[in-house]
Amino acid sequence: MPQTHFDTARYDAVWRAAEPYMRARKNDVHVPLSFAWAQRLLGEYAGADRDVVSLAILLHDIGWYSIDMDDIIEKGFSGPNMLQSDVRYLHESEGVRLAQPVLKGTGWSDDIIAQVCEIIDGHDTRPDPRHLNDRLVRDADKLWRFEVTGIAVACDWFKTTPHLYADRLESQKTQLETDAGCRWATETLAASRGALMLHVI
Length: 201
What we know:
single chain, mainly alpha, 10 helices
């Protein structure tokens, strides 16, 4: 689990305002873990905007709240083109719709809101990142998968075993956008394999 040494209290109001949307698709687990990874990435990439990245990772998946859980699993987590499924696009557009009043209501500027929403809208479906902030959010969104908790949660989504999902993650390490992200994915997956005794079962 990554450690963050930054005072994140300024984002607590956003977290509280978005909390009603966090019950879908284990976002109340996924988002705080991804937020911690984002803070770690921000420590490596000084050119990124801490507010934009932190707010975007907090809110990137709240759009799943608007979609039926069965549809999320059946359409968004299965098939060869799952990342281009209709529900993937819908959760991004709904994320933008829900994020705007959350950010406005917690006092963020129109400029920050626009930058955050630009990242949310396409964070799963856009083939390539647009800028450094986008790259960090995309990596933070993925890195939690390599933790024990991410493997445990994803096993249910993908109806598989920890061992098979860990094997799947081996090929996904190359999808990380940053050098630090690639390195941490490799290190974290190795540690998770050990913790879950995947050399035995």
